[in-house]
Amino acid sequence: RKPMTLHRLREMHAAGEPIAMLTGYDASFARLLDDAGVDCILVGDSLGMVLQGEASTVPVTLEQMAYHVRCVARGNRSAWVIGDLPFGSYQASPAQAVASAVTLMQAGAQMVKLEGGGWTTETVRALTQRGIPVCAHLGLTPQSVHALGGYRIQGRGDEAAATLKQHARELAEAGAAMLVLELLPATLGAEITRSLPIPVIGIGAGRDCSGQVLVLHDMLGVGSGRLPRFVRNFMEGEASVAGAVRRYVADVKARRFPDDALHGYQ
Ligand code: KIV
Ligand code: NA
């Protein structure tokens, strides 16, 4: 496989060719995901929950993220590697965000992701101007779980939808090269995706995004907690982890996953 590039990801979005993303946190899984045809590996701060057993992503530190980015970068060969900027590593100022992003890029990330709209526009511009590709993240932004009052659907109602659309547009104009949308009505996910020149990756945001992402442990059925509606256990009917990941990639590419009737929100 040829190494994935930002240019190619943008082409895939323009051509309506779905992008398959999963989270990954270590070298062995990075190699497996890459070999199974995953386009992008997100080293998500969800590792606070699925690796560390924390109740949210809030306690995750930049040092921990850099460690896992480094592990993934060592195992990966051709997937596009995105590192999450954790809570507290970019909120103080654009300068703080640049310094934190440098840490993740030097650990092997090719792009950094940050949560939120409005106030993040200036930060995205600062990072982009300095040669650091940025993925924005709107909708349910887990680092703000305590402000949002739980893991609940976002963007319902005309006013909330209009704000999200405006934030998405501003972030793309500021140079964001990708956008993750989490937990939104499927129609809003589709509308934002259509309106932007950059790939939009959905998680609980409907089938018509440019691509999909799930937390690795969730889609492998690892863990005992109640899973959100948007997750499917790809291990069901599969004999191996690699088989489950290949099925995920095939189902995303064929737009068989997600099925909005089963996994979507209105
Ligand atoms: O941390 C993470 O895994 C994420 C995805 C759920 C988008 O941010
Ligand atoms: Na995250």
Description:
It is a single chain. The protein is an alpha/beta fold and 266 residues long. It has a single domain (6-263), classed as Phosphoenolpyruvate-binding domains (TIM Barrel, Alpha-Beta Barrel). The protein has twelve helices and eight strands. It has an eight-stranded parallel beta barrel, surrounded by eight helices. α2 (27-35) links the parallel β1 and β2 (40-43). The protein is globular, with a radius of gyration of 17 Å. The mean pLDDT is 97. Its EC number is 2.1.2.11. Pathway: Cofactor biosynthesis; (R)-pantothenate biosynthesis; (R)-pantoate from 3-methyl-2-oxobutanoate: step 1/2. It catalyses: (6R)-5,10-methylene-5,6,7,8-tetrahydrofolate + 3-methyl-2-oxobutanoate + H2O = 2-dehydropantoate + (6S)-5,6,7,8-tetrahydrofolate.
* Widest β-sheet, arrangement of strands: 1-2-3-4-5-6-7-8
**Tally of DSSP β-strands:** 8
| CATH homologous superfamily label | Phosphoenolpyruvate-binding domains
Given the helix and strand composition, which structural class is it?
A: alpha/beta
Q: Please give the CATH architecture.
A: Alpha-Beta Barrel
Terminal residue distance: 37 Å
**Proportion in helices:** 40-55%
Fold-level CATH name: TIM Barrel
Give the strand content. Answer: 5-15%
Task: Report the biggest beta sheet as strand number plus sense, adding barrel if it closes.
Answer: 8 strands, parallel, barrel
What binds here, in terms of ligands, is:
3-methyl-2-oxobutanoic acid, sodium ion
Helix segment tally: 12
CATH class designation: Alpha Beta
Order of helices and strands: HEHEHHEHEHEHHEHEEHHH
Overall 3D form: globular
Give the C-alpha Rg: 17 Å
Low-confidence stretches: none
The average pLDDT score comes to 97
The number of distinct structural domains comes to 1
